[in-house]
Structures are given as structure tokens and as C-alpha cells.
Amino acid sequence: ISYASSAAYAPPEYFINMDESADIRWSKPCADLGKYAMVLYDNIVTLFPEIIDTGVGDIMLDWFDKNAVDPYRSELYYFAKCTKVPLNGLIFINLLYDIFAACTSIVAQDINGTIIHGRNFDAHLPDLRNMTFVAHFTNNAGDILYDGTAQIGYVGLWTGYRLNGFTLTGDAREQGSILENMKSIHDDYWPVGWLIRDTLSHQQTYNDALNRLQTEKLMA
Questions:
Q1: From its phi and psi, is residue 86 left (phi > 0), alpha (psi between -120 and 50) or beta?
Q2: For the chain, what percent of residues have pLDDT higher than 70?
Q3: pTM for this structure?
Q4: Can you spell out the DSSP letters for the chain?
Q5: Among 60, 65, 77, 207, which has the highest number of CB atoms less than 10 A from its own CB?
Q6: What sign results for the dihedral spanned by CA atoms 114, 145, 60, 78?
Q7: What residues contact 6, with CB distance under 8 A and at least 6 apart?
Q8: What residues contact residue 51 under an 8 Å CB cut-off, 6+ apart?
């Protein structure tokens, strides 16, 4: 994780029951980590003042009003309440990666044939480490549906794992112009991190996940 020290570090872990409402399932991690979302938002405003000046926040809010579905819509409304970050600010944070990519994934195989799938997390944004945690998404029966590395206030996932199914990460490519990327936001395109989480939630096998990811339209 970016800004890691030489000391051993393990992010906190939370169980997120998807059979509960957003305000209940996210209450514990938001109570513990929600303050860091506001710090991140303040830093983003400082780093990208031209984005605030161009009215891009309104473009993103319009996209959200037209296209966001549950559980992502209700979760963002709750995160805006519990973190005190304005809704349009949280939407911007949720779409930021799609217009400003970073980080790299790798798939490797060791001499024993074991597949290793990992992703670095080196986005240079202060306090991102503090708001990062491991989320175990469950149901009322206590079954773990899928796992992922999450950030409070962000409703997608960039690294995820479905037991006996598949692993899935996002990987940065040539990012292009930030403003041009923002202009390319279309109503029927998925934010990549949201699609990763949605795929982990609904597809149970590698082939099912591959087929979906090859056919969906991506915002990035």
C-alpha cells in the first residue's frame, strides 16, 4: 500500500452483510475510517482544482442520477451522510480512477504451478492507506460471497476474490488526457471498479466472469 513504512502492516477487516441495508452493513467501517474520506476529498480538491472549475462535478452527478443502481446508489448516499463528504465529491472519488488510472496487476506462476495474482496499490494520495481495509461480503447465513480490498466511501473494488471461482483486479493502461476522459463518460458505461465488484457478486465461475467482462462497456 502506498506510503507503507518498513514496519509490518495489516489493514483492518470487516464483514459486510449484503442482506442488510447500506446504513447497517457499512456502519462499523464508516465509524472507524470515515474521517479519512474527508481528508482524501480535501486533498483531491487541492490536487485537481481545474476539475472543480470546469463543472465536471455536475457531469458526474448527472451520470449518477441517470445510471447508478443499488447497491451502489444507496451506499453512496449513506457514505455521504456518514463521512460528511458532499455527494458530488464522493461521486467524483468513485469515478476518479476511470479518468486518472494508476497501479499495476501481475499474474505469475511459480515452479510448483501455483498461480499468483496480485496488484500493487501505489496511488500517491495521502491517507489512502488509512481508509483501506479488507471487506468480506457475506449474507445472513454467514456465507462469504466474495472478498476484496476496499476504501471507505468507494463502492467498487479493484482487487477481489471469489472462493473456488476466480480472482479479479484492475490494471492501468495509457491514461490519456484527464479532461478528455471525463468527456467520454457515457450513460451506459460501467465504472471499472463497480463492474469488478458486480462481477464478483453475480458471476460464480471464471468463464462467466470472463464472458461478462468481455461484453460490458467500460468507462475507462
A1: beta
A2: 84
A3: 0.90
A4: -TT--SS-----EEEEETTS-HHHHTHHHHHHHHHHHHHHHHHHHHH-HHHHHTTHHHHHHHHHHHH--TTHHHHHHHHHHHH---HHHHHHHHHHHHHS----EEEEE-TT--EEEEE------TTTTTTEEEEEEE-TT--EEEEEEEETT--S-SEEEETTTEEEE--------HHHHHHT--TTPBPHHHHHHHHHHH--SHHHHHHHHHHS-B--
A5: 60
A6: negative
A7: none
A8: 57, 92, 178, 182
Residue 212: exposed, middle, or buried by beta-carbon count in 10 A (0-12, 13-18, 19+)?
middle
**What would the grid cell of residue 40 be?**
482524501
116 CB contacts (<8 Å, ≥6 apart)?
Answer: 106, 107, 108, 109, 110
C-alpha cell at 17: 452483510
The amino acid present at 219, given as its one-letter code, is: M
Contact assessment for residue 135 and residue 150, using Cβ atoms and an 8 Å cutoff: yes
Residue 192: pLDDT above 70?
yes
Tens of pLDDT, residues 1-60: 445 555 667 899 999 999 999 999 999 999 999 999 999 888 888 877 766 556 666 777
